[in-house]
């Protein structure tokens, strides 16, 4: 098994991930229940998934590329290199994109969390340890290969959402917006142009915006629950719901008066 941390392979950081690492099928659940006197069990109010924990069993190999002669000094250099990679300039755990070899098209945003003692063996020249990483957002996101002749093919970058753009005119139009992920996503929607009022509907939810626009930009961020009109907070001008895009194809209806605009849906595919 192998991993990359912010695009750098484990062996290039001086260690290898071993088989038998600890990661669960799903994160631990956060259950909302209440015990009621005289009733067996508990009343269930629902549950959410908590953070995702990775306990990666690892071994320092003193040099992951040219296999220098093992020594306690070389081992300590590897330890410090990894510690520096996991923290920011203030020595605090930083957000890192973790990619697992067995799932190379997706990444988790993780931070170092906990403690990681090293078992130094063979005259302190080798070190065994468990690397504790936590994804406080438990979902995985897509990465996209760079298809550029000047860049090696196994490089990758973060995919900041799939974009679907349309020109809209007339009283209403139906659009198809796909979601290639396995989870429901609240998209970012960017509307540029003119309208008197605007409604966007999908999957039983409707977003209404009641301020006229003339060559203005409306940005609806469903994940952050924000609405901005030319960069200014306009949450008070909306009513209804932020729409949701389910896995697969989605029929989205855009309607209103005086519609003459472009609309872009940015859907961030997510996976468990």
From TrEMBL:
Residues 25-134 form the Siphovirus-type tail component RIFT-related domain. Gene3D superfamilies: 2.40.30.200. Residues 191-265 form the Siphovirus-type tail component C-terminal domain. Signal peptide: none annotated. It comes from the Bacteria. InterPro entries: Siphovirus-type_tail_C (IPR054738), Siphovirus-type_tail_N (IPR008841). This is Phage tail family protein. It comes from Cohnella herbarum.
